[in-house]
Amino acid sequence: xxxxxxxxxxxxxxxxxxxxxxxxxxxxxxxxxxxxxxxxxxxxxxxxxxxxxxxxxxxxxxxxxxxxxxxxxxxxxxxxxxxxxxxxxxxxxxxxxxxxxxxxxxxxxxxxxxxxxxxxxxxxxx
Length: 126
Description:
Elements lengths: L10 H12 L9 H10 L7 E2 H7 L6 H9 L10 E2 L10 H10 L4 E2 L4 E2 L10
Parallel strand pairs: 1-2
Antiparallel strand pairs: 3-4
């Protein structure tokens, strides 16, 4: 009998395997909460990330809403004002405070539109 070769894993399967591999130190159940908190805590003044960017950097691509839940449960212990939605929109109900904090860090904010202005589409300072 001829051996049957298996097709290479689909892209999503490769991404999932890579995400799990990045979190081997977390044990058999990688911890999104801890990983997202580490990414958010590592932001510097002037950095602005989207929820989805935090999720991807934490090794959990596609989990932007989960990042929102992490921030909502953080009781202000994380620099929440540095996180916006994918369109750059500020946190609903907290726009004025978030804009004030971001401006203090040198970020250009359009409060009339409740959005962060990004030069050349780049949000995170490197």
